Amino acid sequence: MSRSKPLTLARLNDSILGIWGIAPQSQSLDHLLRYLSTWSGTELRLFQIFQWLISLERTPQPTRNLLTIERLQGWSMLGYYPFEHLCYLRIHDVIPATVPSPASLLNPAAKPIKLDSSTLSLWSCRCWASYVILQFAHLREDRKLLQLQQRTLRKGKGGVLTAAEKQDLARRWDAYWSGLLVNTCNLPLALHWSIEGGLIKNPVLVDILGLITAVASFRSGWNATALPSTAPQEISDLVAPPIDLGEIAAGGLIVLRGV
Questions:
Q1: Is 253 exposed, middle or buried (0-12, 13-18, 19+ CB in 10 A)?
Q2: 167-197 pLDDT, tens per residue?
Q3: CA-based end-to-end distance of the chain
Q4: Residue-wise pLDDT tens digits, 88-120
Q5: Which of 99, 100, 121, 219 is the 20 to 30 A CA-CA neighbour of 150?
Q6: 153, exposed or middle or buried, with CB in 10 Å at 0-12, 13-18, 19+?
Q7: pTM of the entire structure?
Q8: CA 129 to CA 188: how far, in whole Å?
Q9: Among residues 128, 246, 249, 119, which one has the least CA distance to residue 189?
């Protein structure tokens, strides 16, 4: 008589948050998602999030904590984009102010669903705020892994690192601190736009936070795409999903909010 495995938190995590792992592997489907991800426009970001979540389940992650964090971040983006798109469509009167409730299929007297652009915008920002908060946990795991890599390199070489290794560590630490700065500025903005009436009463402060975020994001992107000063070598990123959409989403939401 076989016994079923005990229901643990890890199994619930895999069954619910990691449900994208059941997506069948198909070259045609993967090709379609890659192709759609090349299209411009935020309305297609949702396809990129699907691709990220599926790839996340197929690629081993450095730690279990990072896997859980990125799963939650992916789900938060699945909430953000539909709310953001519905808000945009409602503002431009592309969709009506009310739509029939699914319950009306069973009960004709069911009340229709109201689509208020302000409410939709608030919920989209709340999903973004969830992502930003989770990013602090992600950065904490990034820091632990970077410190471990640094100790391992120094221990294995008697504390003497090559110029290339020093440059690589410096690049990674620079990316870490830049990411921390961007996320620290994003948090008050995300909370500000997640609360009706706003959290920050001084609009100049909102502009300053947005400017710091934009400059820091530009600097990070510029450094990430710079040609290496030494001979090219295979260097894998510290903790990057197969498609680095988490940071793209977090960095692009400021623009979508109109700052």
A1: buried
A2: 889 999 999 999 999 999 999 999 999 999 9
A3: 62
A4: 999 999 999 998 888 888 888 888 889 999 999
A5: 219
A6: middle
A7: 0.78
A8: 9
A9: 128
